[in-house]
Amino acid sequence: MTPTHKLLLLPGDGIGPEVMNEVRRVIDWMGMRRDVGFEVADGLIGGAAIDAEGTPLSDETVARAKESDAVLLGAVGGPKWDNLEFDIRPERGLLRIRKDLNLFANLRPAVVFAALADASSLKADLVRDLDILIVRELTGGIYFGKPSSIEVHADGTRRGVNTLVYTTPEIRRVARVAFELARMRDRRVCSVDKANVLETSVLWREEVQRLRDANYADIELSHMYVDNCAMQLIRDPKQFDIILTDNMFGDILSDEASMLTGSLGMLPSACLGDAVATGRRFAVYEPVHGSAPDIAGQGLANPLAALLTFAMALRYSFEMIADAENIETACHDVLDEGLRTADIMEVGKNQVSTSEMGAAVLRALDRLAT
Ligand code: NAD
């Protein structure tokens, strides 16, 4: 019998709907050619939800997200909503879905496609075929710790306070995600902290090591200070497989790593939560890029980040590894054919529109399926 996977699509704003259309074509292709049934529902988030429902993410959409096996998100935001109060801005929809689904693990792959190695700011040899995954703790640490304030003293000087706090369960649950993902990859995790200075990092290092020793002896675990990791990512990024780190370090390192790949239009990401009754984890998959209002509606958006995001959903929510690999290979193939959207265009290559790129990926999938 054809399995049915429940997907909720939240295309959002700007180029979000455009790139999501190309994902829909691949979903349809999988139904026809691979006999994989997806039950696909649509919802609103961001500015589109503000316009239609008066809020960047409605309770009903949150409830539908919780009933889905995975949520695929496009992007949110745009100038139309820039003057709204912070609390009702499109971006609040993103924060709300992460919070309500308790998505504590952020996955940011940095993969360099051989055909685009020259687009990196590093030498092509250093990054060609790079494939690392950063697992960042997303709901704890210094961004959420209390107290946090700016105090004004009697003499007019001020004092800013943030609190870096982690508990054993917060560390262990994200470390568990990293170790489980490592079993689907090269079985190597590098945990990054600042244990030479911070008590929270000492705790982080001890808890990660204990969990590995108790449950994941098959995984090679190393530890690295964050300042060294920032250097190593530039010096020799291919030494890493999975980098596991806290919220703030991960925020910075994942942006650094994404620049190694040279293009925002190529980067997928995922946020994972706890396993629920179905055995699946709550999960939201989204390209790293935003709604790109400067190019929206012109057929210029690169759909590959969104397609690679869908591949991540197949891999991490549905264990459809072969199908995920096929989509990734198809994305490699279209680049090898010399096809480029405007954002990654180079001299001598063939510039195509969003839908032409999507069509080329479908043709590549056809070839891979025969
Ligand atoms: P952006 O990622 O939207 O765009 C940055 C630059 O990259 C732009 O020049 C854009 O044209 C280009 N770009 C981005 N994605 C592309 C793609 N797939 N193909 C081709 N070119 C692409 O970031 P921004 O301009 O800082 O923000 C625009 C809006 O998006 C803002 O409202 C911001 O708040 C929002 N935003 C949303 C998310 C999200 O939904 N996760 C993330 C970042 C920014």
Key words describing this protein structure:
Isopropylmalate Dehydrogenase; 2 domains
How would you describe this protein?
It is a single chain. By secondary structure, this protein is of the alpha/beta class. It has two domains: 1-108 and 266-370, Isopropylmalate Dehydrogenase (3-Layer(aba) Sandwich); 131-260, Isopropylmalate Dehydrogenase (3-Layer(aba) Sandwich), CATH 3.40.718.10. It has twelve helices and 14 strands. The chain has helices spanning 16-33, 47-53, 59-67, 91-100, 124-127, 168-182, 199-215, 226-235, 247-261, 304-316, 321-336, 354-369; strands spanning 4-12, 37-42, 70-75, 105-111, 131-137, 149-152, 158-161, 188-193, 220-225, 242-245, 268-275, 281-287, 339-340, 350-351. It has a ten-stranded mixed β-sheet with strand order 2-1-3-12-11-4-5-10-8-9, sandwiched between helices. Strands 6-7 form a two-stranded antiparallel ribbon. Strand 6 (149-152) and strand 7 form a beta hairpin. The longest helix is centred in the first third of the chain and has 18 residues, at 16-33. The chain is globular, with a radius of gyration of 21 Å. It binds nicotinamide-adenine-dinucleotide. Nicotinamide-adenine-dinucleotide binds at residues 15, 75-78, 91, 94, 264-265, 286, 289-295, 301-302, 305, 343.
How much helical structure, as a percent, in the residues? 40-55%
The tally of domains stands at 2
Which fold name corresponds to the CATH topology of the largest domain? Isopropylmalate Dehydrogenase
Structural class: alpha/beta
Mean pLDDT: 95
**Assigned CATH class of the largest domain:** Alpha Beta
Care to count the β-strands?
Answer: 14
